[in-house]
Design brief:
2 domains
């Protein structure tokens, strides 16, 4: 009997970690993968497990039978499997409540009961094993040790294989099945009705979680879950000039746009790429470019075709590199490297004329890359007369939303660059802002491809935003010891996510594209 209880402890440890990873990925399409989200998931998990430990200890004082343990296992398994069914409409009903308190409350509503039940299991197991071995202390050590081993196995299995290959629904159902299968068999032998409830419920969950039929020109081309986020490629109808209907393709990471193109020619629907072409045209043809962050590869394509530059692209997520080639016609002449941007900067032996930071994971800028130390390291890779460009969100002077940009500006200036600011022509909430850094004053008279080439009806006489008009008193210097950019960017990120939820996530779900 000890062996059976130790197997259950292993399964419990596996399930706790699997459920924690699944919980974070369930929140990601609606709330992102920010520190707030991961902190909330970890905090709620630990809180509820501690409650479960306490309740489990209280139950052991009433001398529970083994059937009570089996029922708890089945109940926790059913709840985990059922969660993927109820969480999609539940999360979308709270789509615009991104404050930390609301995130905690939503997480408690979704994840507390399964975690409490999982927390009850080890203490009940310790009681049963202790009765058999007459060594309560030794039993506790063995149970928690085996449970921890299960958690370690789950972390690697789910993080690197199961969730990336099977998404969220199948791993959740599998975890529920794993928790309930042994109790189901044992209770079935005793002809307990709860065993059949588990079987019928499992069949219902599997059927109810089937994908909604895609319709009306919306087609899911690619979908993948992973520790680096959910990735979708979706084709959908898009308006052209004079109201003509065409087809668009979008690349989304955690439901935030990374690339959006006209499907017929793969030209970007966003304007900032053309701004980069124009601003970097002060450099000669055949200039060497380091692009940090590939996305669908539209910026790399523009720099190669319009400026005739040589482009090396660094991308952290290998899935993105494959997607850019398969779904966005990335040229094979664009050299790609799978690496962290900061690590590449530190280890690269090459020199470049243009270094472009275009790095977001969903709506989140990587704090460890956009620091004073990283910009100083970047100087080492820059040829004389070269330039650095940073793509960021469009908020500049807004008190809360613009604080992250002002801090980035302060940090960039502190690294010794001559800095220019160029926001794209849209409103703050829809635009991008480009930071230009050079070792010599930037000479706009050397621009060979003017913006009027792309937008002849727009007057660009004042394309540069006056740096001296920006109040930097509240700005924070971003360093390796003070990497606060992700936290400072939360108000701006929330604005972006609200827009994407309204314009993409909800319409996509109505047309058959599941949340996860």
């Amino acid at each position: 009997m000890n062996i059976l209880f130790f197997i259950i402890a292993l399964i419990e440890g596996y399930s706790v970690m699997a459920f924690e990873l699944i919980s974070a990925r369930i929140l990601a399409p609606t709330f992102g993968s920010t520190l707030h989200v991961w902190g909330t998931v970890i905090g709620v998990t630990l809180l509820c497990l501690s409650i479960g430990y306490y309740i489990g200890g209280y139950i052991t004082n009433s001398k529970p039978g083994e059937n009570q343990l089996y029922i708890i296992l089945i109940a926790s398994g059913l709840l985990i499997g059922f969660l993927t069914l109820i969480s999609q409409p539940f999360l979308l009903s709270f789509k615009n409540t991104g404050t930390p308190l609301s995130l905690v409350l939503i997480s408690l509503a979704l994840f507390s009961l399964p975690n409490i039940l999982l927390g009850m299991i080890p203490t009940i197991l310790i009681n049963h094993v202790g009765k058999i071995s007459h060594e309560t202390g030794g039993s506790a050590g063995k149970i928690y040790s085996i449970s921890t081993v299960g958690g370690i196995l789950s972390c690697f299995a789910n993080g690197f294989f199961i969730i990336p290959h099977f998404g969220l629904i199948k791993p959740a159902i599998f975890t529920g099945l794993l928790l309930g299968i042994i109790p189901f068999i044992l209770l079935l032998k005793q002809k307990k009705p709860v065993a059949m409830i588990f079987l019928f419920h499992l069949v219902f969950i599997s059927y109810a979680n089937k994908k909604i039929q895609e319709r009306s020109g919306f087609k899911l081309m690619y979908k993948s879950e992973g520790l680096l986020g959910q990735i979708l490629v979706v084709d959908f109808p898009g308006y052209r000039q004079q109201g003509i209907m065409g087809s668009d393709r979008v690349l989304l990471v955690n439901r935030m746009g990374q690339t959006w193109v006209h499907k017929e020619n793969m030209n970007s629907r966003w304007t900032y790429g053309n701004y980069i072409v124009s601003l970097s045209s002060v450099l000669p043809p055949d200039s060497k470019v380091l692009l940090l962050g590939l996305g669908g590869g539209t910026v790399a394509k523009l720099l190669k075709e319009q400026n005739h530059f040589q482009v090396d692209a660094v991308e952290l997520d290998s899935r993105i590199i494959q997607i850019s080639s398969t779904y966005f016609n990335r040229s094979e002449d664009i050299q790609t490297v799978v690496d962290d941007a900061r690590h590449y900067i530190r280890t690269c032996k090459k020199k470049y004329d243009l270094i472009l930071f275009d790095i977001f994971k969903g709506e989140t800028p990587p704090s460890h890359v956009l620091t004073a130390e990283c910009f100083q390291e970047t100087q080492r890779l820059l040829n004389d007369g070269g330039m650095v460009l940073i793509n960021f969100n469009g908020f500049i002077t807004e008190k809360a939303e613009g604080l992250s940009f002002r801090s980035l500006l302060t940090t960039f200036q502190s690294s010794g660059f001559h800095v220019k600011i160029v926001p794209t022509f849209e409103e703050s909430r829809q635009r991008n802002t480009l930071l230009i850094g050079t070792n010599y004053p930037y000479d706009k008279n050397k621009i060979k491809i003017p913006l009027e080439t792309f937008y002849p009806r727009i007057n660009f006489s004042s394309m540069f935003f006056p740096v001296e008009d920006i109040d930097l008193k509240d700005a924070v210097l971003l360093t390796d010891d003070n990497p606060l950019l992700e936290v400072l960017n939360i108000p701006a990120a929330q604005q972006w996510r609200e827009d994407y939820t309204k314009n993409f996530t909800i319409p996509f779900r109505k047309k058959g594209i599941p949340l996860f």
